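Let us practice reading a record.
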Amino acid sequence: MSDPEARATIRAATEADVPVVLRFIRELAEYERLLHEVSATEEDVRQALFGARPCAEAVVAELDGQPAGFALFFHNFSTFLAKPGLYLEDLYVSPPYRGRGIGRRLLVHLAGLARERGCGRFEWAVLDWNEDAIRTYRKAGAVPQEDWTVYRVTGDALDRLAAEADR
């Protein structure tokens, strides 16, 4: 019997993949118990990935021609390194395809892209309770940045802060 990982392929998402990408986003949100926060539509995803000013990219992992998972990422920048970084926003493998090395293959693919594009960093955030993901990331050589805390401004707080520019 052949190695199931050997059949997995990773390719850049195309505009035709928008429904699949949104499906994976929703599945991931459900897994993370955050489905209530998803407001993205197919058109939102299309514009973000393929619009006039794309702000993110995605790759799709396939096993035997079927979408098995995806990764969505974008570039950030390190002033200390004066180099771009690759930020992994989401990585998800559907439950029937887990345990076959697909998550690792997605990480390897993105690490290769980061090197190819001259990035000094490849980073992401993970929920503290997601031990399966943490194990996968540690096996890949990732280490948590314990001295840093992520801050976020959204919704009404973002509107209030942005309104100060009008004063």
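A brief commentary: The mean pLDDT is 93.
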